[in-house]
Design brief:
With 156 residues, this protein is an alpha+beta fold. The protein has 4 helices and 6 strands, in the order ααββββαββα.
Length: 156
């Protein structure tokens, strides 16, 4: 396959691109599984909103948006502040802001109305408000093997 890649063959380029993609996605699967096991603690939500991302456009329909959150929480008596909603930063256009609003609505709250903050037990300063779900983990794993399935279908 190296010789095909060095020769600029489509088959060689596609194969090594698939290998790279597979490695990156499998690392992501491992990370998602690890973060899905993080414990949760009650926290105080300070801010939860959408924020314009990048340069403002004259026409508002051309603007992009990201979620902006801020929260505080305690682990073993020590106060921490966080700002990450999920491990993924999603940028959405004006017309697709509903995706970000849906993300914000997925924050879990306890009976007192506090948000549940999921934190890394080894590094409590690292936290998220939404843990990866099984559907996302399975989707990422399927995307990892998809290039090899396409390669196998095309060349065998």
């Amino acid at each position: 396959m190296w010789s095909l890649l060095l020769a600029g063959s489509t088959q060689g380029v596609f194969f090594w691109a698939a290998v790279y993609t597979c490695v990156v996605l499998l690392i992501s699967v491992v990370y998602q599984i690890r973060t899905s096991l993080w414990p949760g603690v009650a926290g105080t939500l300070i801010k939860s909103d959408l924020q314009r991302f990048g340069a403002a456009e004259w026409d508002k329909s051309d603007d992009d948006y990201i979620t902006e959150t801020a929260y505080s929480y305690q682990v073993n008596g020590k106060e921490y502040k966080g700002h990450r909603l999920t491990a993924w930063t999603v940028v959405a256009s004006h017309n697709f802001r509903f995706i970000l609003k849906n993300q914000l609505s997925r924050m879990k709250k306890n009976q007192e109305g506090d948000v549940i903050v999921f934190y890394n037990p080894k590094k409590p300063e690292k936290s998220y408000l939404i843990k990866p779900g099984i559907a996302g983990i399975i989707t990422t794993a399927l995307l990892a093997v998809l290039p090899f399935l396409l390669y196998w279908i095309k060349y065998y």
